[in-house]
Write a structure and sequence with these properties.
Shape: globular
Number of domains: 1
Helix content: over 70%
Largest sheet: 3 strands, antiparallel
CATH superfamily: Winged helix-like DNA-binding domain superfamily/Winged helix DNA-binding domain
Number of strands: 3
Structural class: mainly alpha
Number of helices: 6
Radius of gyration: 20 Å
CATH topology: Arc Repressor Mutant, subunit A
CATH architecture: Orthogonal Bundle
Distance between the termini: 31 Å
Strand order of the largest sheet: 1-3-2
Length: about 150
């Protein structure tokens, strides 16, 4: 019986150690990314929404939150800020006027095209603690972990 308790304790400790390591790694990588984004007058969420609009085209405002992991109330605020900065606009759907889309402006497109390559370099630099092979392995394992956690979320 004692061995089973030890295995369970080790397993719990492994899970907690991984959780802490994952959280800290994410925090520090995000610190690099956030510092870079702030230099351009945006926060992480504004940048994420703008990048989504650039790469995926106009998006229904109600669906953006699920794609950038934010509540819909916050998305309204973020789109307001992007509109004030002339980086995005709202447009009513031609099929259903209740449906409002956020769309990147030409100024927003130019902004992303100028900023995104350097931002990618900042993230690559922050990830250089792992070899290319370790990055691929970590990515695969974290996707597996995320999928499992999502499927078992009740």
């Amino acid at each position: 019986m004692k061995k089973a308790v030890n295995r369970m304790t080790i397993s719990k400790n492994d899970a907690l150690d991984l959780y802490i390591a994952l959280s800290r790694a994410g925090q520090w990588v995000n610190a690099h990314a956030d510092r870079d984004i702030r230099q351009h007058g945006l926060n992480r969420t504004e940048f994420g929404v703008l990048e989504l609009l650039y790469h995926k085209g106009a998006q229904p405002i109600q669906q953006i939150g699920g794609k950038v992991l934010m509540s819909s109330g916050n998305i309204t605020y973020v789109v307001d800020k992007l509109e004030q900065k002339k980086l995005a606009v709202r447009k009513a759907s031609t099929e259903d006027r209740r449906l409002i889309f956020a769309e990147i402006t030409e100024q927003g497109r130019q902004f992303i095209e100028n900023v995104f390559p350097k931002h990618t370099e900042v993230i690559e630099q922050a990830m250089n603690g792992l070899s290319p092979e370790e990055k691929r392995t970590a990515s695969q394992l974290l996707k597996k972990l995320g999928k499992y956690a999502q499927e078992h979320f009740k």
